[in-house]
Amino acid sequence: MVPLWYVIHTHSKQEVRAECNLRVLNIETFAPQLKVRRQNSFTGEFQLVVKPLFTGYIFARFDLDSLLHKVRFTRGVHSLVSVSDGPVPLSEEMVDCIRGRVASDGFVHIGSSFNRGDRVVIKEGPLKNLTGIFEKEMKDSERVMILLDAVEYQARVLVDRNFLTKAISAG
Question: What's the CA gap between 83 and 10, in Å, rounded?
Answer without folding.
Answer: 17
